[in-house]
Specification:
The complex is a heterodimer. By secondary structure, chain A is an alpha/beta fold. Chain A is built from 19 helices and nine strands. In chain A, strands 1, 2, 3, 4, 5, 6, 7, 8 and 9 form a nine-stranded mixed sheet that branches. The chains are: A alpha/beta, B alpha/beta.
């Protein structure tokens, strides 16, 4: 039996009124009315500054945050612009439409993205962007940078690039980026991003995939969309946006949840797209608009000792699971480094790569509950971070970039190892 | 049919703008004349227009199509005599058609005797009738209007060896309205024509009458004082006559020319015009709603005059740079189509001869607040000739039939003041009055029909306007109302079929009656009123309650 439509009659009515558009920006809210209002103002400014002639729409997916987003975003810019009527005001030539959709079922990022993609498909949008109101320094230029490559240069996927502190975004820099680069062969730094751009073509392709009931899609659908692009013939690029502030302490997911969401989704993506990457060798850069990835190095207080203790205790506690997930040699080496003292501890690149490839393969072979498996990576990740920060306590951003590049190459060098483990027949230990 | 006595006649008028030279040539000299125009008055009466606005017909070297006047109280010999004008005026009035003529009071031709005297010596009594200077640095920063041809607002006069001020072409020196003698001379000219019976003046280039250092030399208080004095004298001596301002300014600036109902009776709404074109191209009502929301209320006795095209370029002065670029890109890709800050094209070619869009724009023109002005030839969809130079491409001979010279003249074609349009699409064999008279579905027949409907309902000319805001932005909908008379206008600005839901709950129980076919539509109820419209389709509904 076909599922009921996930598009409400109200949303369809709003979309009918909008008609065909050139550009669509989706806001997946879950935020306060104030944050959404600010994001919408920024998007409107971007349209006014960069896309005055285009047919545009802002689609706000109401995640049920505190207050009435619908009131924030309903309607359109039909009215009189403020200001002195004597003076011509720079505004979009066309109406800037606002569409608000409420979830008909359980709110999730996946449902929100699916709704945006459906809107994009119905409105025949040529280029789209997704932004998050939680990004406090969203600017009109960010929106333009995400839309332009898809709208003017026919790219299908536009990943963001940020200026990061050298200790910021480490999960991406030492795990997700190097591994995705080695696996899929495309050098996209930010697979898990709060904002990204895409073509209507890619949006429609993703909309038509039968994945929307998968758990991995619900929390971090952006990585799946990114992987869908980089593992196919879609044209991918990166657009530099600027500094990406860290969310206030306590507002983001903790490291366990972050790894469950990102690494879990990423492993699931590897699984679903295996046919496209197993035989791929090496990696290639993608076109980048604006400067390359930037790192800054203001001093930051870190509690490394605590991190090392959590590594050691976690590995000991999860030893039975690790022995199931990891190859014997990898497991042995892990147990060796747990035994050394904090000062001489090093989690080498070679071991780190094999560890991750073992985890990915075990995930694929379902050697155990996949959620538990992914969570077992947490202490190892802490150990790697501790080692990385110890090594680079005094490194310049340039030196850290070089180290990161070496790590990436190590992932690429050992891809054969992944392929062998991935395709090997495995007896599942119960 | 005699003229109806109504001092507010200009509010209900449908004005037809024409150039005597271009309309009909009665003596086979290749140039239209008053006798020819008189012969064609039946056509204009049949069309349904109630007033004519004549472009300048005075003696002139014709370096600016007659806006360079060399004698204010005579008729250019090519167009006939003063007697011919009187005959025409009487004939027009007999058909219930009023006549508005041009009054170019900002400047004269440099061939005008006033200027010839003024330049003859610095001591000449008429020297101060114009604005002179020993340098070209006075009034620095004042914008140049004809940017394609003029480098400065000052021109050197080799005769009197000094500079004279001109806001338009250098052969059009500005009169000095700081000199009371100039004002009296201009008033004498106006009296001359009023005494002959003309019904009003279209005053050219009004904002530029007075100059003051440190200002833009536009819209100055002294200019308004001059206009108030003219209006006072007009009301005292010639009640029922009207003044129409050409002030290409933002609505809030033009508003000042209405004063407290004691300056102009009417003024052009320049910024609305390009926005109607923009809205249709953008398929979005936003430009129209924005500019009308910025348009201030005017005194009860005053009126806006609205138009689609006229004898000048489609002016893009009252738009933003972004809007101007858009208009150029969409309507004047070929740079030959551009002149000054505008587009020198006629309505039909701009609409790519798309009958639906031509009708939609005329529907907007006839249903929005203001007195509509139709430019001659647009009622049959005449084309233009962008290769004629200046704005002459939209001033070609009227196309009456498919015969010699389009029925405009029996002169040899080479003798015509301008060649007739003869291409395969807009040429006179394809587009002419006689052929369109033969068919009830022709553009001409349709124009007669819409003018007839408009003339039958005073709500269009005097009613208020209230926008509806359906969520479909491709649809522009508004209610016109005067007393108990209400009309709902719904326009699909887009090239595709549209559905629209109108919030007409306030009019629950009203029955909409489509005004062209007089068909009854379903009654308004509690729910939003659903309408579907084909591409560029529009409806006018009379709202009745029983």
């Amino acid at each position: 039996m076909a599922e009921d439509t996930f598009l409400s009659d109200d949303l369809l009515r709003q979309l009918m009124s909008v008609g065909e558009v050139d550009l669509l920006v989706g806001i997946t809210s879950h935020s306060s009315a104030q944050a959404i209002r600010q994001a919408m103002q920024v998007i409107e400014q971007s349209f006014q500054q960069n896309f005055v002639r285009q047919r545009v729409v802002i689609v706000n997916i109401d995640g049920g945050g505190p207050k009435d987003e619908a009131e924030v975003s309903a309607g359109n810019s039909d009215g009189q612009p403020e200001g002195n009527p004597h003076v011509p005001i720079l505004t979009s030539l066309r109406t800037v439409h606002h569409v608000t959709a409420r979830f008909s079922g359980t709110p999730s990022q996946g449902t929100a993205l699916r709704t945006v993609l459906a809107a994009s498909d119905l409105l025949q949008a040529r280029a789209c962007a997704i932004v998050s109101p939680t990004t406090s320094n969203l600017t009109p230029q960010w929106i333009a940078n995400l839309l332009r490559p898809a709208y003017r240069d026919n790219f299908d996927f536009v990943a963001p690039l940020y200026t990061r502190h050298k200790y910021q975004g480490l999960l991406a820099r030492i795990l997700l980026y190097p591994m995705s680069r080695a696996v899929f062969g495309k050098r996209i730094r930010e697979l898990f991003a709060d904002e990204w751009g895409f073509s209507g073509r890619l949006g429609t392709h993703c909309l038509n995939q039968n994945v929307w009931h998968e758990a991995a899609i619900h929390s971090r659908p952006e990585a799946w969309m990114a992987v869908s692009a980089i593992s196919s013939d879609y044209r991918c690029c990166q657009a530099f946006l600027g500094p990406k502030p860290q969310p206030p302490t306590g507002s983001g997911p903790d490291i366990v949840e972050a790894i469950r969401q990102t690494v879990g989704t990423f492993f699931w993506c590897l699984e679903t797209r295996a046919g496209s990457w197993l035989e791929r060798e090496g990696s290639e850069p993608v076109p980048t608009f604006g400067p390359e990835h930037e790192l800054t190095s203001e001093p930051v207080e870190l509690n490394l000792q605590r991190m090392f203790e959590l590594f050691c205790s976690g590995v000991k506690e999860l030893e039975p699971i690790l022995s199931t997930v990891l190859e014997r040699e990898t497991h042995a080496e892990i147990m060796d480094i747990v035994a050394v003292d904090a000062k001489t501890f090093r989690f080498g690149a070679d071991l780190w790569v094999r560890t991750l490839y073992d985890f990915a393969s075990s995930y694929h072979h379902q050697v155990m509950n996949r959620d538990h498996l992914v969570q077992a990576l947490v202490p190892l990740y802490r150990g790697k971070i501790y080692s990385f920060l110890q090594e680079h306590a005094n490194s310049s951003p340039e030196e850290m970039e070089e180290a990161n590049e070496r790590l990436c190459l190590e992932f690429e060098r050992q891809k054969l190892y992944l392929r062998e483990r991935w395709t090997k027949r495995v007896e599942v230990k119960v | 049919m005699a003229l109806q006595e109504d001092s507010l006649w200009y509010k209900d008028a449908v004005i037809y703008q024409l150039h005597v030279r271009a309309f009909c040539d009665s003596n086979a000299d290749g140039i239209g004349d008053f006798t020819g125009l008189t012969q064609r008055l039946d056509y204009l009466q049949e069309l349904g227009v109630t007033a004519l606005w004549l472009l300048p017909f005075h003696p002139s070297p014709l370096r600016d199509d007659g806006y360079d006047i060399a004698d204010y109280t005579a008729v250019h010999p090519s167009y006939g005599s003063l007697e011919d004008f009187k005959t025409f005026l009487t004939a027009a009035h007999n058909r219930g058609i009023r006549v508005i003529i041009e009054m170019v009071l900002n400047h004269t031709s440099d061939q005008h005797p006033w200027f010839q005297e003024a330049r003859s010596s610095r001591d000449n009594p008429k020297r101060n009738w114009y604005v002179w200077s020993d340098t070209d640095t006075r009034y620095a920063g004042v914008r140049i209007i004809f940017i394609d041809t003029e480098m400065s607002n000052w021109a050197w006069d080799p005769v009197s060896k000094s500079y004279y001020w001109h806001r338009f072409f250098s052969h059009q020196p500005d009169l000095n309205f700081d000199n009371p003698e100039v004002f009296e001379a201009v008033w004498e000219v106006m009296k001359f024509w009023l005494n002959l019976g003309v019904d009003g003046f279209r005053l050219d280039a009004v904002p530029y009458l007075v100059e003051r250092e440190g200002t833009s030399c536009e819209n100055l208080p002294e200019t308004h004082a001059i206009m108030r004095e003219i209006r006072k004298r007009l009301d005292q001596s010639y009640p029922g006559k009207m003044l129409l301002a050409e002030a290409n300014q933002w609505p809030a600036d033009v508003r000042a020319y209405f004063g407290q109902g004691d300056e102009f009776h009417a003024a052009f709404h320049f910024p609305l015009m390009p926005r109607m074109f923009m809205a249709v191209k953008l398929e979005d009502r936003k430009p129209i709603i924005e500019i009308l929301n910025q348009t201030p209320a005017i005194p009860e006795t005053c009126q806006w005059c609205i138009f689609l095209r006229n004898h000048d370029e489609l002016t893009l002065e009252m738009v933003t740079d972004v809007e101007r670029d858009y208009m150029y890109d969409e309507y004047a890709v070929d740079k030959t189509m551009r002149i000054n800050l505008g587009i020198r094209r006629r309505l039909a070619p701009m609409m790519e001869n798309d009958r639906r869009r031509i009708e939609l724009l005329n529907g907007l023109l006839m249903s929005m607040p203001g007195t509509p002005i139709i430019y001659y030839g647009d009622e049959i969809g005449m084309g233009d000739n962008i290769y004629l130079g200046d704005r002459n491409g939209v001033r070609t001979p009227m196309q009456w039939n498919g015969g010699t010279n389009a029925g405009f003249s029996f002169a040899d074609p080479e003798r015509l003041y301008a060649p007739v349009i003869s291409n395969a699409v807009y040429g006179y064999q394809a587009v002419n009055v006689d052929s369109q008279k033969r068919f009830s579905h022709s553009l001409l027949s349709w124009m007669k029909s819409i003018i007839r409907v408009r003339n039958a309902f005073r709500v269009f000319s005097r009613g208020s306007m209230e926008f509806l805001h359906p969520s479909n932005h491709r649809v522009l909908a508004y209610i016109r109302q005067i007393g108990e008379e209400r009309v709902l206008v719904v326009n699909n600005l887009s090239n595709s079929a549209q559905a629209v839901e109108l919030d007409v709950q306030r009019y629950k129980g009203y029955i909409p009656i489509e005004m062209f076919g007089r068909n009854i539509f379903p009654k308004f109820g509690e729910l939003p009123y659903l309408l579907t419209l084909g591409p560029y389709q529009f409806y006018w509904f009379r709202l009745r309650r029983f």
